[in-house]
Amino acid sequence: MARCDALIVGGGPAGSTCARQLCRAGLDVLVIDKQEFPRDKVCAGWITPAAVASLELDLDEYASERVLQPIRGFRIGTIGGPATTVRYEAAASFGIRRCEFDHYLLQRSGARLALGEPVRSIARMDGAWLVNNRIRTPLVIGAGGHFCPVARMLSAAGDKQQAIVVAQETEFALGDGERGDCGIEQDAAQLYFCPDLKGYGWCVAKAGYLNVGLGREDSHRLSEHVAQFRAWLRERGGAPRDLAERFNGHAYMLYPESQRRQYDDGVLLIGDAAGLAYPRSGEGIRPAVESALLAAQVVRAAAGNYSRVSLALYAARLEQRFGKRIAGRQAAAWLPPPLKRFLAARLLAMPWFARNVVIDRWFLHSGQPPMLPGAA
Ligand SMILES: Cc1cc2nc3c(=O)[nH]c(=O)nc-3n(C[C@H](O)[C@H](O)[C@H](O)COP(=O)(O)OP(=O)(O)OC[C@H]3O[C@@H](n4cnc5c(N)ncnc54)[C@H](O)[C@@H]3O)c2cc1C
Question: What is the pTM of this model?
Answer without folding.
Answer: 0.95
